[in-house]
Model the fold of this input.
Amino acid sequence: MSPAPFATALTELTGVRYPIVQTGMGWVAGPRLVSASANAGALGILASATMTVEQLHAAVREVKSRTDAPFGVNLRADAGDAGERVRIIIDEGVKVASFALAPSKDLIARLKDAGVVVIPSIGARRHAEKVAAWGADAVMVQGGEGGGHTGEVATTVLLPQVVDAVGIPVIAAGGFHDGRGLVAALAYGAAGIGMGTRFLLTSDSTVPDAVKAKYLAATVKDVTVTTQVDGLPHRMLRTAMVDSLERSGRAASLLRALRHASAFRKESGASWPQLVRDGTAMKHGKELTWSQVLLAANTPMLLKASLVEGRTDIGVMASGQVAGLIEDLPSCSELVERIMDEARATLKALPDPS
Ligand SMILES: Cc1cc2nc3c(=O)[nH]c(=O)nc-3n(C[C@H](O)[C@H](O)[C@H](O)COP(=O)(O)O)c2cc1C
Done:
């Protein structure tokens, strides 16, 4: 039998039809988006950092009830309850574990022993080299143009750098939205593309319509990087709220962070001692102060205000620069089919090499 069109190391490793990943996005990548992506032939990834352990379990079961296709779960390796989340992934037979921060060698081994494919997300070559040495099956690299927490190096530089550095499949993320991008990523040596903002802007995403309209209206220049939400570079739409965060003084930021830490504690089901343990893990190896760790609790609550409650006046909208190029809200299935058609057309239109 001839191989499926656009078969790559990613499709082989995970069993998905197309080399496209719908990435884990807090409050956005829930069961509806993930099952729609999976049914469209992409690898849908549930975002679990903003769910309690019980909610994650229920979400995994809901995805399984809506699709037979493989899917993944994104989690924070440094969360105090990461072990419980990993148990759910293993017990429920989830195909892929995706990590926002590099998982430990032991965690990778535990997942791999159970047959789970491990794909950490990284933003720098040395992190890719580290997780590859620890046995990760593939890595997702996110260039600086990508949405959410992000680095400084653009996809066009980071991707070939990581492809050359590691011997495992590399998935390219940051700035992708169409079939040209898929072909370009494959030409760089990637095994597929990961897209966040593009999947957020589909009719299957649960983000309120009025909020999607703000993303659609954004130009490339309306997408900015700020460190004022949680001390780490975070790419999002520039709004009056972001301006005010950048103007507000240290005391106001800390007060807000304390309020948000308290709210997030209730949301995530974490106890105060657990939050302190997570904070200690987060500080480890980084130059973060306790006030920055406290500010980290800002991120989920500010994202929730916009992406779930539609309160863009008091929340933030994480976004890739690519929001400036996106103008419609297709279903996941329309999007994936369109990208594959564009990829075929792009390949045909390339100059004849002979
Ligand atoms: C709204 C939003 C929420 C995100 N939340 C997470 C998250 O919880 N975990 C994670 O690993 N990455 C998260 N990201 C990053 C995405 O998974 C992905 O790497 C990024 O969006 C890729 O860049 P693109 O937006 O240009 O496609 C988020 C991105 C966005 C836009």
